[in-house]
Write a structure and sequence with these properties.
Blueprint lengths: L2 E10 L3 H12 L5 E3 L13 E2 L9 E2 H14 L3 E3 L3 E5 L5 E5 L3 E10 L3 E3 L5 H6 L4 E2 L2 H4 L7 E5 L3 H10 L5 E5 L9 H8 L4 E4 L2 E9 L4 E9 L5 E5 L2 E4 L3 E3 L30 E3 L11 H22 L1
Parallel strand pairs: 1-2, 1-8, 2-5, 8-19, 10-17, 11-12, 11-17, 12-13
Antiparallel strand pairs: 3-4, 6-7, 7-8, 9-18, 14-15, 15-16
Helix pairs in contact: 1-2, 1-7, 5-6
The chain binds NADP nicotinamide-adenine-dinucleotide phosphate.
Amino acid sequence: MTKKIETDILIIGSGPAGYSAAIYAARANLNPHLVSGLEPGGQLTITTDVENYPGFGDVIQGPWLMEQMKEQALKVGTKFHHDIVNKVEFDKNPFLAETDSGIEFLSKSIIIATGAQARWLNIESENKFKGFGISACATCDGFFFKDQNIIVVGGGNSAVEEALYLTNFASKVTLVHRRDKLRAEKILQNRLLNHPKIDVIWDHIVEEFIGSDEPLTLKKIKLRNVNNKCEKMIDATGAFIAIGHDPATSLFNNKIKMDNDNYIITKPDSTETNIKGVYAAGDVKDKVFRQAVTAAGMGCMAALEAEKYLAENY
Ligand code: NAP
């Protein structure tokens, strides 16, 4: 059954950008509705320690931070929907957004804060062992790999943080990187390279995940040296893929201007998209900074810009 909701601001997404937009919009008496998406709280709900979000003297936990943001957004009047937007139409005014549970939002403005999602290696054997040894979330699944040998693939901040976190469970962690340099911050690199439980295999890519069928269990990983093409087999019962993210923008294909990597394009120093009244904030439009604090800042900007748009146009 379809339920119609008319609103001034619809926010799609529930990461730091979405919640910050909601807090600002609600405090401007705009009665925002927020549709959370599949993973309420976004990427920070699959992180552990956060020590770079300002305002906290002690290390805090990502999931806790997101709970606090949600609580704050609700307290100031945001209407929260644990639902998924499956269709948008920007050529109607008000804009239309339909959800899986059958809600039809008619909204004068929309803030897109759908974030980004984990990237996979996309090799056949990866699919086979996904959930049976292969994961993209150390926080979610690390516990299942107690006293095991595991690998982490990637060379960015995520890969290094995941490798460090996984030493809490695993007997040994091997970071496999396709180059001979990490792109992670120096402080993280130092922690990684000096950790007694972590080895790094440079210049290698994963070629195949190998294991048994019944029960489905990962046992070995075939690597290939990118320079001399030699094969290397390592024993590992877990593999964490940490090779970056893709913006969650498939819902907006051909409806809004995006760049070649499918990030939504916004005007300089603004969250305004090519459609008046539609704004984009956070990782969905940002491939440079991609931080919780920058996403939150953009959420605030989007709400302020939407408020101005509504005042001038309605
Ligand atoms: P990233 O910085 O884009 O790094 C992705 C890594 O995966 C790179 O090392 C890349 O190799 C490798 N890679 C990509 N595709 C691959 C493939 N098909 N096979 C093998 N390796 C592949 O992604 P991220 O680490 O997820 O970080 C994303 C952003 O979030 C960054 O801006 C980062 O600084 C930020 N971040 C910050 C924190 C923090 O501040 N605490 C924590 C996590 C993430 P190359 O190096 O060869 O390209």
